Amino acid sequence: MPLCDPAEMTRISMRIAEDGKMTFVDARLSQLLGLSPDQLIGRFWWQVVHPSDEQSLQDAFITMMTRDQQMRLNCRIRSASDYRPCTITAYKFLNPFNDQFEFVVATHHILSGDEEAWIPTTTEPGPAYVPPSADYSSQQDWRPQDPSRDSSSWTTWDPQAYPQHS
Predict the structure, then answer these.
(1) Fewer CB within 10 Å, N- or C-terminus of the chain?
(2) Model confidence, pTM
(3) H-helix or E-strand containing 66?
(4) Alpha-carbon distance 100 to 43, whole Å?
């Protein structure tokens, strides 16, 4: 039962239990990474990535589980011979009848040589975003005033003046 579109040959889907262990791994794992699903089922999800990416994936998993938000992470995933760059997206699947947690659905997009160029080669954070400055010191009202919109000339609304619906 693949969770990804069969036409997407660079994507692997996994199910992750609440404790972080993999309970289902797409059979495409063999074609893309040279590993069998049996090698991963029962292991912690963060054990499938490069050792320097393990903590990032574990932290993202914990955040996703506690804050009910989806996650997206760029990392390197283990293959039979080395590590391949990949983008992981994951979300919690809740039972639609009782809103109880069932499992995490994780999609691993294995990047080709062309796609991996956009992944930063360093783990250092990039420059912080600085919003453009604006001058808020002006005493003028931010809305243009329309003299015809003077609220003192408005009539008050009286709900008793309208007949009730029957």
Answers:
(1) C
(2) 0.64
(3) helix 54-67
(4) 23
